[in-house]
Write a structure and sequence with these properties.
The protein is an alpha/beta fold and 344 residues long. It contains 14 helices and 12 strands.
């Protein structure tokens, strides 16, 4: 069994974006022995030189992090890997990573959507630790990383069984944000996937911030439609979906009832969320604006694929996946007109 210790274990964080960079910096600052893989040379020079500048929810910090340019530059075998690349770059990263692992290596996914099943197909289930990233972060420019909101890590064994490796891992990750172990990690991951499938994908097709989206009843109705389809799929999977938003959003209670009072409460809650996070800009929208492929396949696409396998209709999620694909291919513009088409 892999023993995690600050000095003896070989640890890598792959991906020096907002989540990976912040994770690597605070772990390094706490004395953990790790190496950060920075794909871009400028980020590498900053991380290993003056240090990454972290600011926001945990104050201002400038932290040097031992770094290399590629996965191939890492010294193996690795005991522990935090995978923080985009889901769309995951398979390529795994092909490079696999030769550096030993049978008891652990790989923790710090990615959007549910990537754990794809990771397990390549690495084996025993190597994969499920993880929900519950804090927000943005990279403004290389080496300038903002922790936009506080939150937690949630980790767990994919087979929902006790795993003695998780307690020392929890200790290590708690040096970044509070960390807890869940016996229902897939239910935790699915919970985040549902809300992300609403916020980030709808933001990608219409181009609005969350505050602007939640001011429009048509979009709030689409939020609810995405949630209902996702929960119908979860029910068929036999999956208990955990509450989202730090336990404040229980999907089962939230979607229960079809009277005007229940509907009013649902819309009111979305308006309040929209006001609180009114400046939030969809990560899918940011990817599209940079000409990069978004992670929709691991969000709404996951719901669609599972629905297809189980015979559960998911027309709204299907339409969103198709629209994002058409935007990527240049056959559709980011526009509010997409919302009218979805509503119809």
């Amino acid at each position: 069994m892999t023993e995690i210790s600050g000095q003896n274990s070989k640890t890598a964080v792959i991906g020096a974006g907002a989540i990976g960079g912040i994770t690597a910096a605070f772990m390094t600052d706490a004395g953990w022995n790790l190496t950060l893989v920075c794909k871009h040379k400028l980020t590498l020079d900053i991380a290993a030189g003056p240090g990454l500048h972290i600011f926001g929810a945990r104050g201002h910090h400038t932290i040097k992090v031992p770094s290399v340019r590629t996965i191939a530059d890492l010294a193996g075998p690795l005991d522990l890997v935090f995978l923080a690349v985009k889901a769309t770059d995951m398979i390529e990263a795994l092909q490079e990573l696999l030769p550096l692992l030993h049978p008891e290596s652990m790989v923790v996914s710090l990615q959007n959507g549910i990537c754990e099943e794809s990771l397990a197909m390549v690495l084996g289930r025993q190597r994969v630790v499920g993880c929900v990233v519950g804090f927000g972060a943005t990279m403004h420019e290389p080496g300038e990383l903002e922790m936009t909101s506080s939150g937690e890590f949630v980790i767990g064994n994919l087979d929902h069984r006790p795993d003695p490796r998780l307690d020392p891992l929890k200790k290590m990750m708690s040096d970044v944000v509070p960390t807890r172990v869940s016996n229902n990690i897939m239910g935790e991951l699915y919970s985040k996937l549902v809300i992300n499938s609403c916020i980030t994908t709808l933001g990608g097709v219409c181009g609005l911030t969350l505050g602007a989206m939640m001011g429009k009843k048509k979009i709030r109705r689409l939020f609810l439609a995405i949630m209902r389809e996702a929960m119908a799929v979860a029910d068929k999977l036999g999956l208990k979906v955990e509450p989202a938003a730090g336990g404040k959003l229980d999907y089962y209670q939230y979607l229960d009832g079809d009277g005007w009072r229940e509907d009013f409460k649902r819309h009111l809650m979305l308006r309040l969320i929209g006001f609180k996070y009114r400046r939030l800009k969809s990560s899918t929208l940011q990817s599209l604006e940079r000409g990069k492929e978004p992670e929709t396949a691991y969000l709404n696409g996951y719901i669609v694929d599972k629905g297809r396998q189980l015979g559960v209709p998911t027309p709204v999620n299907q339409a969103l996946v198709r629209m994002i694909e058409e935007i990527v291919m240049g056959r559709r513009r980011i526009s509010l007109a997409n919302i009218d088409e979805l509503s119809a």
